Each structure stands twice: as C-alpha cells, then as structure tokens.
Amino acid sequence: MEKLLIKGGNSLTGNVTCSGAKNAALPMIASTILCDEKVVLKNLPYLQDITTMFELLGSMGSEIMLDENMNFTICSDNLSDIEARYELVKTMRASILVLGPLVAKYGKARIALPGGCAIGSRPVNYHLDALKQMGAKIVLKNGYIEASAKKLSAANIRFEGVTVTGTENIMMAATLAKGTSVLTNVAKEPEIIDLADMLISMGAKIHGAGSDEITIEGVKNLKGTEFYIPADRIEAGTYLAAAAVTKGDITVNGINPDRLMKVIDKLKGTGAKLDFTENSISISMKRDHPKPVDITTAPFPEFPTDMQAQFSVINAISDGTSNIYETVFENRFMHILELNRMGCDINVQGNHATIKGVKSIYGAEVMATDLRASASLILAGLCAKGETVVDRIYHIDRGYERIEEKLNYLGANIIRLPS
Ligand code: UD1
Q1: pLDDT tens track, the chain, 419 positions
Q2: Residue ranges around ligand 1 (CB below 6 Å)
Q3: What is the rounded CA–CA span in Å between residue 90 and residue 54?
Q4: Helices (H), 343-417
Q5: Cα(336)–Cα(346) distance, rounded to whole angstroms?
Q6: Which of 119, 164, 374 to mutate to test ligand 1, by most ligand atoms within 8 A of the CB atom?
Q7: Burial tier of 116 (Cβ tally within 10 Å: 0-12, 13-18, 19+)
Q8: Which one of 79, 196, 263, 325 counts the least CB within 10 Å of its CB?
Q9: Per the residue annotation, which of 18, 35, 117, 383 is the catalytic one?
Q10: Cβ distance 371 to 395 under 8 Å?
Q11: What is the full DSSP assignment across 127-190?
Q12: 93 CA: nearest ligand 1 atom
C-alpha cells in the first residue's frame, strides 16, 4: 500500500488552484442516466471516486469518452443493466445516487445496500421513504435494494432529516415523475444548486434549489448538455487550513468565497488574515500559534462536517482550549486517536472533542481511516517536528487530486512511497 512521507516544518507560500468538486461531480455523472442524449462534463477531478462512478455506469452500459481537452462525454441513453453491485457500493457509498435516476428512467433498480462506514452507520432510509412516497415499490433482499415503479408520481415530501445525497437522488427522480413535486427540509449545500443548474440545462423544471423548499415539475424527457464542474470548496478549505497550521501565506484560486463563509469566519477567528476576490481566497497566518476556535458541524450554511478534522489540527496546535461538536455523523473522530499519537491533547466524549492546544507536535507513523481524516493527518504532518508517515492513503486519493503535488508546489516536503 502506498504511503505519504511528510517532512514537517515548512511554511506554505504561493498559489494553488482548486480542482472540480467531487461532491458536485458524482450526482452529475449519475444524472446522465436520466438523459436521452450525450452529456459533456468539463473540469471533472481525477479522483478514485470519480473512476468508481464511471466504473458503475460503465458496468450498466453507459458509453464514456474522454477527449484531448480532458472533457468527458457520457451517453447513458440505452443501459443494459440496472444494478449497482456490492463490490462497487462498498468502496463508494455515493453509488446510491444512481437509484433515483434508474427508477425514474428505467422503472427499476437493484442497488447493494450500503453498510456502515468508518464515520458512522449512514443509512439510506430517507432516500427510500421518499421514493416510496413517489409510488416506488421497495424490497430489501439479500443485501440489495430492489426498487420498481411503472412511472414515478410527483409527491410532497418532507425529509425526516437533512440529507445531501438523499435530496439529490429525489430531485433527480422527480425531474421525470408525473406532476409537480415539492421537497422540504432539503439540503442546501452548493452542490445541490450545481446539480439543479445542470438538470435545468438539460430541460428540467426546478425552482428553489439552495433554499428550504425545492419544487420540481416533471418533464417527459431530458436533453443533452455541456456542464462545467465548479471548484471543490472542501479542497479549498483544506489548503487554507494547511496554511493556517504552517504560518503560511497562500492564495487558493478558482473558488467562490460564498461557498465557504463559515470556514472563512472560523479561519479569521484563528487570527489569520483573509482576503478575497470573486474567484479566490488568500490567507496569511503570522501568529506562532493559531487562536483556538469552537466548532459545531451542521448542514450548510453552517460549518461543514467535511472540514471538522482539518480544524481539529488547527485547534490542536493553538494557544488555548477549544471544543468541537460533531452533529452530522456519530463517529467522525477517528483521526483524534492518531493525532494524539503525534502529541496532541484531545479528549473525546461522544460527539464532543475538548482540545487543549500544545506547543509542538511530533512526527509519527499514522493511519488514515477516512477521506477527511487523512487530510487532517497530512496537515498534522506538515506542522509536526520530524517525519510523519501516513498509511492507507487510498482514502485521500478518493477525494483530493494530486494532493502531495499541490502541497509540494506550495513548499511542503511530501514524498509518495510506493507499496
Ligand atoms: C454527503 C457528502 C459528504 C458529507 C455529507 C454531510 C457526497 C457524495 N457526500 O454525504 O461528503 O460529509 O454529505 O455534509 O455528497 N442519514 C440518515 N438516513 C438517510 C440519509 C442520511 O439517517 O437516508 C443521516 C446520515 O447517517 C448522517 C446525516 O443523515 O448522519 C447526513 O448524511 P447525508 O447528508 O445523507 O450524507 P451523504 O449524502 O452520504
């Protein structure tokens, strides 16, 4: 298994450009199932999760072509299969995103039930309840979800809890349903707006994405489109956090600061100076130690759970005590055990971490447990004394494009060790 060897102590300086957003790209690729024509996606990030989504669509009969400008043309108009097998679903839970489109377009789907994962149980009951309300018959059999419906009917659906992929799944399904659906208590993440924009460009009739209520008037069919994937706000936030822990001075290009407001507010709270344009965020950290910041994760527009692990590192080397409450996932503190092995002083009780800032932390051999946990270990390695080796980095390759190359370009010293 490949590992990352990080020699800590370098301040990050310079410019870095964000890749396309993984969490926007995944539902967009799934949405091509709804469409009768070719779809061209531009600025897709080169990531393991994207490859897995293509593998899934390919296994069902989609044609996927890459041109010389790295644009992908996807044609999913005549699928020969409607199954997402366990081998793929177990490596990427977002495979569930093909459920809504398959039932809406082909009247049936067979998707392996995602099990638990490192950050919690992550059930899909909200997705299934909503599809049932649209008239789908759902049977759970042999570890698979078997869904069928002659034609989905529009429905007024109030989600029991806020779910990002659940909102996306049902928004996609409703585009081809009979009548007008109204979805409430929906997720408001920027990626929901991105998906709605893409579906609208395909001829869908969607209003209200990004608000508490989304209205979708079903149409007979969707046409092809070309769509540019916006920058990854979590990747941007991770590089800003990396600068904050290394007394850095960097500009992250390609990112709209409106997508990261809560993270920016908290970075300001650490004593860093932040500047913006419409399309970039600059950060400069002059303090020897960041000021501690309290964090409570919650759905957008609140502080994103996908930035919690990175802020654990900022707080761990701060000059005071702070609290982090994780309210989105029940088991998202796996990185803390590894951070404590590097000399951090963090105590976890349930969903609450109390972090006492320490003067310095030390390199160690650590193990990544999930995507954002891996990012936090790299950040810790960047500000630790000595060498850190991060194992199981396949997690990081799922969600960060060429992370060590981008960080090295900013002055980090990271080597990818072959397996
Ligand atoms: C998406 C993101 C992930 C991010 C998360 C929260 C993608 C591909 N992934 O994941 O990066 O961390 O949002 O912002 O976009 N839940 C249920 N039943 C359901 C669905 C969800 O109980 O049917 C619970 C989950 O266990 C979790 C919470 O709701 O506790 C939020 O999960 P959800 O928003 O669905 O996360 P994902 O869409 O899987």
Answers
A1: 899 999 999 999 999 999 999 999 999 999 999 998 999 999 999 999 999 999 999 999 999 999 988 899 999 988 999 999 999 998 899 999 999 999 999 999 999 988 656 666 678 999 999 999 999 999 999 999 999 999 999 999 999 999 999 999 999 999 999 999 999 999 999 999 999 999 999 999 999 999 999 999 999 999 999 999 999 999 999 999 999 999 999 999 999 999 999 999 999 999 999 999 999 999 999 999 999 999 999 999 999 999 999 999 999 999 999 999 999 998 899 999 999 999 999 999 999 999 999 999 999 999 998 899 999 999 999 999 999 999 999 889 999 999 999 999 999 999 999 98
A2: 23, 26, 93-94, 120-127, 161, 163-166, 187, 305-306, 328-329
A3: 15
A4: 371-383, 394-399, 403-409
A5: 7
A6: 164
A7: exposed
A8: 325
A9: 117
A10: yes
A11: HHHHHHHTT-EEEEETTEEEEE-SS-B--EEE-SS--HHHHHHHHHHHHTSBSEEEEES----H
A12: 39
Q: Whose CA is nearest to atom 19 of ligand 1?
A: 124
| Ligand 1 centroid – CA 273 distance (Å) | 32
Residue with CA closest to ligand 1 atom 12: 306
Name which residue sits closest to atom 35 of ligand 1, judged by CA.
163
Ligand 1 atom, smallest distance to 371 CA: 11
Q: What is the pTM of this model?
A: 0.96
Q: In this structure, which residue's CA is closest to atom 20 in ligand 1?
A: 124
Burial 301-322 (b: 16+ CB within 10 A, else e): eebbbbbbbbbbbbbbbbeeeb
Contact, 32 vs 62, CB < 8 A?
yes
What single letter denotes the amino acid at residue 348? V
Is residue 35 annotated as a catalytic residue, yes or no? no
Examine residue 301 and say whether the peptide bond preceding it is cis (omega within 30 degrees of 0): yes
Calculate the alpha carbon distances from 20 to 62, 65, 81, 202, 226 in Å.
Answer: 22, 18, 29, 20, 15
Distance 189 CA to ligand 1 centre (A): 11
Q: Report the atom number in ligand 1 closest to the C-alpha of 124.
A: 23
